[in-house]
Amino acid sequence: MVVCTGTGPDVTLSPSGDMTEPTRSARDWDARYKAVDEGLFGESPNEYLRRFCERSDFVEFISRHAEACRVLCLADGDGRNGTWLAQCGYEVTAVDHSTEATRRALARDKAAGVTVERITADLTDWMPEAGRTWDLSCILYLHGTSVLRERAVRLAYEALEHDGWFLLESFSKAQADPDAMGPDDSDKLYDRAELQTWLSDALIIEATSERILLEEGRRHAGEAEVERLVARRRFSAGSGVNPANQWL
């Protein structure tokens, strides 16, 4: 794991001497980022994230905090979301497995005049320090095997403070098409059934399967089938939130 640096960890080798799947994926993403000058997914923050931060219930939640709201962004890529959150006054921790993406994200932070704790690490085994928690955790277009995705979702959820918020937007299994955006392997895509299983103990605020128009750089351009989810962790007494857990 590398924290706040663009220098990545050594390559991990399997017993056979071949690169492991996470390492191969990280190197693939390094190559994709190095192949372009602009952001692969545009320069603006994700629209679902931007709209979420304007929710009246979330705004009321952060207004009760004496200190800055702490946000964990998994698979933050070249930083467009993490940098924007820091500009909004949030205290941001961002994790990504691509060394090149993290290097670009740090440059983006510097240009914006903000500080983000950036960690280059593999989400198949990364864990936050014992006792660290966040008020909001985000997963925006993190795709991989069902094992990786389940671990990332549970990690992001369990890293929350009580009453904390979880946000996800990612391609749906309905998007599995060689000509569509995102992976063409359905095992790397999401559906509501698996999210419901992985987050059976969460309070679901919003869970939808939608067809939307994405305008996020060259890799996210056009119509897409996505899963969207807003949830909260176990509620403490006096939180003022109805604890009914509904998947609509």
Fold and architecture overview:
The chain is α/β, with parallel strands linked by helices. It has a single domain, classed as Rossmann fold. Helices cover 28% and strands 25% of the residues. It contains 7 helices and 8 strands, in the order βαααβαβαββαβαββ. α6 (146-158) links the parallel β5 and β6 (160-171). α4 runs parallel beside α5 (99-112). It starts with a strand and ends in a 16-residue tail after the last strand.
Write the layout of secondary structure elements.
Elements: E1 2-3, H1 21-34, H2 47-52, H3 56-63, E2 70-74, H4 80-87, E3 91-96, H5 99-112, E4 117-120, E5 134-140, H6 146-158, E6 160-171, H7 192-198, E7 203-216, E8 220-232
Q: Number of folding domains?
A: 1
Q: Give me the CATH fold name.
A: Rossmann fold
Spell out the helices and strands N to C. EHHHEHEHEEHEHEE
Number of helices: 7
Spell out the CATH superfamily: Vaccinia Virus protein VP39
Q: Structural class, judged by helices and strands?
A: alpha/beta
Major pleated sheet = 8 strands, mixed
Question: Stretches where pLDDT falls below 50 for ≥5 residues?
Answer: 5-20, 237-248
User: How many strands appear in the DSSP assignment?
Assistant: 8
CATH architecture: 3-Layer(aba) Sandwich
Q: How confident is the prediction overall: mean pLDDT?
A: 81
**Beta fraction:** 25-35%
- How does the overall form come out from the CA principal axes? globular
Q: What Rg is obtained from the alpha carbons, in whole angstroms?
A: 17 Å
Strand order of the largest sheet: 1-4-3-2-5-6-8-7
Helix content: 25-40%
In CATH's first tier, which class applies?
Answer: Alpha Beta
Distance between the termini: 39 Å
